[in-house]
Design brief:
single chain; alpha+beta; 3-stranded antiparallel sheet; 5 helices; about 25% helix
Length: about 260
């Protein structure tokens, strides 16, 4: 039975990336995006879809880059769509990328953003297929100093969270800590910053929890959920009354590496 594994990590493998060529300029860029998304998302969840105009030395038209989370779904999409017209009068050319990612990317395991984690989980498991619960949310540091005529403030929050998959009998825990230093000009500024950090630390803990989860796609269409057990995995009997944390830095936009090399 064919098995494919989806991780809550940014996909970088070449066998998950498709290029679509020979897109006619008979539709707008937005229309092309919508049509391509409708076709290719039917094969599985997409991490990325970008539509770009051809270069100045090429005939008028567009090409597209599509990234799947699953190599098997990318391969199936390529086989089913290559040479078909789909939404235009002439056939499209759909190819798998042939060039491997740079070593520093292929060996990395960048976690998905908070929004991407939820998007992938909801797509594969359904909106009632997983739950998250805050076990502990604490203000760890609240320091204040006079600086240049203003008040300098340092806040630090920690969060311990539990992620559950009730239909699969799997549960995992993870933690995060975030902090910020700022000039406090009044109680409204302090309240707003405290709310921002509380939201951010919850999101960071959820990302950390999803990063231990594997979605296993079976050839018969069924899906299994497994949790990676690591040396720092939180055990239920060890977390009562204790907050353990991992240091995180603020989210950055996902940087895409464009590789127009195809097979």
């Amino acid at each position: 039975m064919e098995v494919d594994i989806l991780k809550f990590q940014v996909p970088v493998a070449a066998n998950k990336t498709l290029f679509v060529w020979d897109i006619q300029p008979s539709h707008t860029e937005t229309q092309i995006y919508d049509r391509l998304y409708g076709v290719f998302s039917s094969f599985g969840p997409l991490y990325l879809l970008k539509v770009c105009p051809n270069g100045s030395l090429s005939p008028p038209g567009f090409y597209a880059l599509i990234k799947f989370y699953s190599a098997a779904q990318a391969s199936e999409a390529q086989r089913q769509t290559d040479g078909r017209s789909l939404f235009q009068s002439s056939p499209l050319k759909v190819t798998l990328s042939s060039k491997q990612a740079p070593h520093f990317l292929s060996d990395s395991s960048r976690p998905l953003s908070h929004a991407r984690c939820m998007e992938l989980a909801n797509h594969c498991l359904g909106f009632n297929g997983w739950t998250s619960d805050i076990i502990t949310l604490k203000e760890l540091t609240n320091e204040e100093e006079e600086e240049g005529g203003g008040r300098w403030r340092r806040l630090r929050f920690g969060c311990l969270l539990q992620l559950s998959f009730p239909h699969h009998g799997q549960t995992t825990r993870a933690a995060a800590v975030v902090e910020d230093s700022f000039t406090c000009t009044g109680p409204d500024v302090l309240l707003q910053k405290r709310r921002q950090l509380q939201k951010l630390v919850r999101e960071k803990a959820l990302v950390q929890a999803f990063n231990t989860v594997l979605l296993i796609l079976l050839g018969n269409g069924k899906l299994m959920v497994e949790v990676k057990r690591t040396s720092d995995q939180f055990l239920f009997e060890q977390t009562d009354g204790v907050l353990q944390v991992n240091q995180f830095v603020p989210d950055e936009e996902d940087d895409e590496v464009w590789d127009p090399t195809v097979s």
